[in-house]
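sorry for the late reply, my laptop died twice this morning and i had to redo everyting from scratch. anyway the thing you sent over, i finally got around to it. pasting the sequence first so we're on the same page, its 265 residues, then the predicted structure underneath. double check i copied it right bc i was rushing
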Amino acid sequence: MIRRFAVLGSYEAFKKSVFDLSKIDLNSYKERQMKRRIEALIAKCGIDSYANYVSKLKSDEVIFDEFINYITINVSEFFRNPEQWTLLENEIFPYLFGHFGRELKIWSAACSTGDEPYSLVMLLSKFMHLGKIKIYATDIDKNVLEKASIGLYHEKSLKALPNEYLNKYFTKVNDKTYQVSDAIKSCVEFKKHDLLKDNYPSNCDLIICRNVLIYFTDEAKNKIYSNFNNALKKDGLLFVGSTEQIIQAQQIGFQNYKSFFYKKA
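ok and here's the structure:
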């Protein structure tokens, strides 16, 4: 792709227009990464300036939805980083049950297409009946939430899924596509949520937010981590991604518990 920084116009004005249209604050995302993604999308649409692209966003719902879906990061799979799910099963859930009982309040934040909250339900089903499980799952992108609610997945998303769950909770639709069962879907409540501006749920026992905050500025990260801390019960846990860590966690009210898990002090 030919770099067109000079001809696109003012990125600052574009960010303001995006906020007015969607309430997504691009100032909270790392600018170099975000500009590269947006410029690639503008080039794909054959548009020559930010201003003309904003006009398209205002007038064309399909292009607007494509833009929201493109700038939000939606890379997910079932049981991503399997060793961390083994830790969840063998140590984290027993710890949570011991502190908070069996009816846990779990929030899957930035849940993307639902792979993560559905994985949580399947893992919890080893400890309790499905009727006792409820996962609160949110994302800023309504399109991925719709996909999550439908529950159709390409086989690539299932590569780390243990066979016991694949055989029990999925139906093969065709050679490449699987449908998650209604029994699993009924355990998850999906809702649109912006981590930067919307109210957070309260009294959570476990919050999972993985491989998302790496795209935010340090200031935005600290704000979100602080909000996560406030959303947790005392001794509740935050589960982060394998490429993430909370710098100066104690200043936000966390302490290291296990690799990728932080406990509210």
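The longest helix spans residues 82-100.
thats about all i looked at so far, will dig more tmrw
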